[in-house]
Write a sequence for this structure.
């Protein structure tokens, strides 16, 4: 026999049950799907479950798919608990739209500001509020090389771009590809940043990438950067156009190419191909980049949410992501360095140790990558210019620098 | 084909009944709401300073000034006409030729028909990737010919900025000509046998009969074919993404890819809307007079 009061009680019971369950739930959106990446994100998931929550994994293939899905969910009133982004102008734009939850209380409690590099602190704050949790620091301006190729040639990996230009004809004559490179937007970004810091120097880099100084972008020094870039065209193989970065890296893995300019995420691919650091491949900062670390940072942001239980879940998530011990474990799989300067890095590999040393050089060595420096719109315009310059041999370095100056001039500050 | 069919039906009975109107109402509402309202919105957004999110303050032609000053858009817009003209003419020529050959009652026609229609069942993504591999100088045709001993053979169109757009035309023709063949073959089979008999008695050669008599009869069918290919040209996005990704540089970019890149990757809906509006305008400027001319011709 059903009485109204029983029904109500049952309903109330069910409701409170579901709410209790929801209090444990953290729906986390990210795009970490490759072998090393998924092992890394599993560290967060395991830790969150251990602390009494329930991690709901919501992975997308690639950043664009994740961003589109996340923005749709926010617009539809069903935001995820947390979502991954690359720190930079895009994150600030999200904060500007007022969709991100400020994390000031947690930041103060965890003393985040004192334990993070200043460039990160600046970019994870909007209007005085902390709005993002940085979980790692990747370096984009690395040079990974095949030790077998350099041993066979009895040569040393180049320390400057001039050295590379002098060595490249010899490498090519011996039947190797001097530089593994796939001409697409992603790889042209990495190459150009390494050239800008390595040929133009950190000061030029900072005046264009940080201060958006159009005059510096069109200067003679910049023309020289484009000139060196143009000379590299002859040292790539015929399969270069539109080749994915991991296919380019495979040329180094298989000892067909001498080196590649690529971020430290390459280590995961080497590991998957059963290659060992030291015996099969080596890492150094890109030529001329010995005092430069182009930072690429993954952050999690926490969209505003009406459900009270979600705030607790966000607190729990953000706290554990900023836990130095958890960060050390996470970054061992991810191939990057912990964002927290007080995290233990003694057990990380030789590349990470080298990166740590360059980073320790202070703010002068820490350079922003594209995402940190420009809006996606400006980044896209620069990528179009660089891609066009690379493929179009009739375009002069001076013309390229002039076009860059126009784009930088329109980028604003 | 569609126009022919609807006219035949239209003559048989005219759907003036209430039931038909009720049945059509949802479609009309969806058309108005989803298509025309969205088009209007996009056109309006293209005349604002919208960036990450829509802004409704009218700002005139600023987006269009920037759009037409963008080198990448200039290339993409020119490419649409180049790619469109070559793809429409090429697909039509190959499709009609195949249909005529099959119409001469070859043996195993069924098998040929299936083989030739097969590309159509493959998505543009797979088509693009396959052609990318075939044309890639390091793993494709060039490498194959070199392995036969012709060691300085060069076929690297897909990696050259001047020629990459033509490789898209290859793939487009390969993908679509089967459909055109099927449509034209159906039309050829519908041509009155008496015409053929008369032509034979008059001693007119077969090729002349096709060109001067049979194909002109099938003109309405060809209009349908042109419209079908033109739609594929304008919306082509997957093919470029899978095959060249717009490169080298942006030399093989097309407006469809330009719009998607700006809308979703660069979060610049103002530029994306302006580009989409220019696309729409250009298509209307070509298709409307063409259809008007063809339909007026037939009604005369």
């Amino acid at each position: 026999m059903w009485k109204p009061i029983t029904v109500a009680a049952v309903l109330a019971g069910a409701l409170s049950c579901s709410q209790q369950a929801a209090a444990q739930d953290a729906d986390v959106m990210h795009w970490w799907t490759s072998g090393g990446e998924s092992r890394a994100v599993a560290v967060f998931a395991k830790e969150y479950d251990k602390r009494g929550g329930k991690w709901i994994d919501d992975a997308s293939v690639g950043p664009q798919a994740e961003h589109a899905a996340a923005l749709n969910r926010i617009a539809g009133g069903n935001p995820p608990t947390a979502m991954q982004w690359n720190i930079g102008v895009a994150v600030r734009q999200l904060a500007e739209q007022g969709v991100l939850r400020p994390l000031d209380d947690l930041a103060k409690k965890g003393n985040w500001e004192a334990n993070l590099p200043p460039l990160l602190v600046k970019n994870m704050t909007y209007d005085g509020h902390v709005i993002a949790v940085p979980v790692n620091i990747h370096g984009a301006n690395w040079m990974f090389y095949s030790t077998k190729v350099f041993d066979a040639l009895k040569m040393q990996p180049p320390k400057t771009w001039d050295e590379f230009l002098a060595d490249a004809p010899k490498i090519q004559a011996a039947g190797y590809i001097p530089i593994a490179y796939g001409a697409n937007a992603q790889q042209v970004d990495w190459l150009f940043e390494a050239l800008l810091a390595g040929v133009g120097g950190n000061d030029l880099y900072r005046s264009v990438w940080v201060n958006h100084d159009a005059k510096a972008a069109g200067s003679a020094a910049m023309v020289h950067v484009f000139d060196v870039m143009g000379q590299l065209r002859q040292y790539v193989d015929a399969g270069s156009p539109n080749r994915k970065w991991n296919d380019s890296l495979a040329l180094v893995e298989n000892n067909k190419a001498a080196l590649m300019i690529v971020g430290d995420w390459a280590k995961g691919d080497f590991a998957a191909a059963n290659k060992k650091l030291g015996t099969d491949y080596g890492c150094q900062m890109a030529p001329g980049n010995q005092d430069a670390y182009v930072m690429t940072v993954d952050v999690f942001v926490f969209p505003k949410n009406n459900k009270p239980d979600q705030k607790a879940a966000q607190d729990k998530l953000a706290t554990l992501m900023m836990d130095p011990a958890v960060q050390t474990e996470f970054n061992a799989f991810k191939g990057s360095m912990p964002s927290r300067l007080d995290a233990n890095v003694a057990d990380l590999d030789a590349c990470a140790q080298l990166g740590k040393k360059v980073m320790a050089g202070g703010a002068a060595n820490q350079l922003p990558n594209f995402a940190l420096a420009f809006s996606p719109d400006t980044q896209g315009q620069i990528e179009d210019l660089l891609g066009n310059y690379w493929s179009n041999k009739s375009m002069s370095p001076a013309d390229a620098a002039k076009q860059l100056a126009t784009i930088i001039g329109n980028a604003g500050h | 084909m569609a126009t022919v069919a609807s006219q035949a039906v239209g003559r048989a009975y005219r759907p003036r009944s209430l039931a038909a109107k009720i049945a059509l109402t949802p479609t009309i509402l969806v058309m108005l709401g989803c298509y025309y309202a969205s088009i209007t919105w996009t056109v309006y957004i293209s005349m604002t300073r919208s960036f990450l999110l829509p802004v409704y303050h009218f700002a005139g032609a600023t987006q269009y000034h920037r759009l037409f000053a963008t080198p990448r858009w200039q290339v993409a817009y020119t490419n649409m006409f180049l790619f469109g003209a070559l793809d429409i003419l090429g697909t039509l020529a190959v499709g009609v030729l195949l249909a005529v050959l099959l119409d001469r009652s070859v043996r195993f026609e069924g098998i040929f028909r299936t083989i030739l229609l097969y590309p159509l069942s493959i998505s543009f993504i797979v088509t693009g990737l396959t052609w990318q591999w075939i044309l890639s100088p390091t793993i494709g045709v060039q490498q194959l010919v070199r392995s036969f001993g012709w060691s300085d053979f060069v076929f690297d169109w897909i990696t050259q900025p001047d020629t990459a757009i033509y490789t898209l035309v290859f793939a487009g023709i390969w993908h679509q000509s089967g459909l055109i063949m099927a449509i034209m073959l159906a039309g050829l089979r519908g041509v009155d046998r008496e015409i053929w008999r008369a032509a034979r008695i008059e001693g007119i050669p077969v090729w002349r009969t096709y060109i001067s008599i049979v194909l002109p009869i099938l003109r309405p069918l060809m209009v349908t074919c042109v419209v079908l290919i033109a739609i594929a040209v304008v919306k082509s996005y997957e093919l470029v993404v899978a095959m060249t990704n717009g490169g080298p540089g942006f030399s093989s970019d097309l407006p469809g890819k330009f719009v998607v890149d700006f809308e979703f990757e660069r979060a610049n809906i103002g530029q994306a809307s302006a580009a989409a509006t220019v696309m729409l305008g250009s298509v209307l400027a070509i298709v409307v007079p063409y259809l008007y001319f063809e339909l007026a011709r037939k009604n005369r």
Observations:
- The first helix of chain A runs from residue 4 to 24.
- DSSP finds 20 helices and 14 strands in chain A.
- Residues 1-22 of chain A have pLDDT under 50 and may be disordered.
- The CA atoms of residues 178 and 394 of chain A lie 23 Å apart.
